[in-house]
Design goal:
26% helix, elongated, 226 residues, 11 strands
């Protein structure tokens, strides 16, 4: 004779236990899946925040260097009117104050360039103080700082006029000139397809001509005062 469980009897039937275990397993799966999704979303948010911070920092370094570029004469020869500025399609060298993290207010020779093998390269800032070395009297050794990794390409373009009466145009190279370009455009592409390409940066040097010379608009030359 089968005994029936009374209304107040303790315990669960096998079916009730199986149903409860199934519900617990389902809830565990849902919760763990939600945690994984939240972790991935948090990770993507952190990556986007880091990328935005890198973009802001590197753009500021480039912009500050270009706008504060100093049009110093390249040599002590009073007949030489060439300005210290070597702008190529893939690199840029100029004389400007160092970033605050390196040496705020200290003028140095700075160079922006890519280095590395393969499609993914690193953007470097090479710098040396604008002073002669004590031993040889030549230039001091160049220091370099990593600005950004996972870079596929960087391109520089320079806007300026070839002659005093000519209209300004964009150039792939600006070197050996008696004045700085009116504008410098920086184009940067990332090597990681998950990272967005940056919008072009355009900056204008505040001083284009050395104050130690008098510019002649008729000849387009700079007559040095010292």
């Amino acid at each position: 004779m089968k005994r029936r469980r009374g209304a107040g009897a303790a315990g669960f039937t096998l079916v009730e236990l199986l149903v409860a275990l199934t519900l617990v397993g389902l809830l565990t799966t849902l919760v763990s899946g939600g945690v994984r999704l939240a972790a991935r979303a948090w990770g993507r948010t952190d990556d986007r925040s880091a990328e935005a911070a890198d973009r802001w920092a590197v753009a500021n370094v480039l912009r500050d260097a270009i706008t504060a570029a100093y049009p110093a004469f390249a040599s002590a020869d009073p007949r030489d009117h060439t300005i210290v500025f070597d702008g190529e399609a893939g690199s840029l060298a100029l004389l400007a104050p160092l970033p605050q993290a390196i040496g705020a207010g200290v003028t140095a020779q700075m160079r922006f360039y890519l280095a590395g093998d393969g499609p993914s390269k690193t953007l470097f800032l090479g710098w040396r103080l604008d002073l002669p070395a004590a031993e040889s009297g030549g230039q001091l050794p160049e220091n370099r700082v990593v600005l950004l990794d996972r870079v596929r390409r960087i391109g520089f373009a320079y806007f300026g006029a070839d002659a005093p009466d000519a209209a300004g145009v964009w150039h792939e190279r600006w070197a050996g000139s008696t004045a700085l370009p009116q504008l410098v455009r920086v184009h940067l592409e990332r090597s990681d397809p998950a990272l967005p390409d940056w919008p072009d940066l355009v900056a204008a040097p505040k001083a284009m001509i050395n104050t130690a010379c008098i510019f002649d608009p008729l000849t387009g030359d700079c007559r040095r005062m010292r």
